[in-house]
Amino acid sequence: MDIERLSKVQIVLLTLLVSFVTSIATGIVTVSLMGQAPPSVAQTVNHVIERTVQAVVPASQTSATAEPQQTKAVVTGADIIAQSVQKASPSIVRIYTSDPQSPTFLGLGVVLDGSGTIASDLSALGQSQDAVALLFGGSHVRVSVTTRNSSTGVVLLASATSTIEGAAPTWTPATIAGSKLFLGDTATMLSGSSVARIGSGIVTSLFPPTKDMPEIIDTSIDPNAVLPGAPLIDAQGEVVGMSTAVSRSVSDVGFVPASAFTPQAAATQSK
Questions:
Q1: Three-state SS for 20?
Q2: What does the alpha-carbon distance between residue 141 and residue 122 come to, in Å, rounded to a whole number?
Q3: Burial of residue 45 (number of CB atoms within 10 Å: 0-12, 13-18, 19+)
Q4: What would the pLDDT profile of 120-141 be if each residue is shown by its tens digit?
Q5: pTM for this prediction
Q6: Domains in the chain, start-ordered, CATH in brackets?
Q7: To bridge 94 with a disulfide, which of 106, 121, 134, 148 should be the other Cys (CB 3.0-4.6 Å)?
């Protein structure tokens, strides 16, 4: 074969063939030498190769191909309480005397249905037949007594169809818990005569019902924060009880269960 008579294309192909054969021979020799070399030399060569690869591959490309790390959200007890309070608060009203000149705070109440039926502490109303409820949104509605139950200490109130300000009231009925609390369960009380306050604790005792008294839920909540009609809610923001004169006669931080003032229970009660 006369190299001088080769065309340019043949020369390029011949060069590629020689380079390919040379690369294979170099690889075989390198692998053979690495197999015979001491471990320290092999580690050094590997280290150089890793450094070379890191310098060639951009850092941005490396981070883009890396698998994303999964983060787990940690929910604390304080978060649970905050969420439950946020859910229940729109269903709580503050009840005042109907005196327009100097209204006096009487207690708290729980909205039971979309028509504005409110459950509260019977002792807060006393012998009064009417009062004014301050709703969560800030409007005022006149309410009147429909049912008194001396065995549970619960009073039910019916609301007017319009607010004192002249608009139609917006009601957010409370979610009544379908299950009972157990000893050790976390319980939160909504309170505050002028601003919203909470009291948190656990269920410390369950007094069984008697002939003249319902079951009483006793808690570790600060008794100084308890107000007439203060509702007790569970971790899901569902109402499980209420402070009435009857429950406080057993314990300063006792509550009658929600079964004492559910709409179904109200239907069986008489004035």
A1: helix
A2: 19
A3: middle
A4: 999 999 999 999 999 999 999 9
A5: 0.70
A6: 3-61 (no CATH), 78-267 (2.40.10.120)
A7: 134
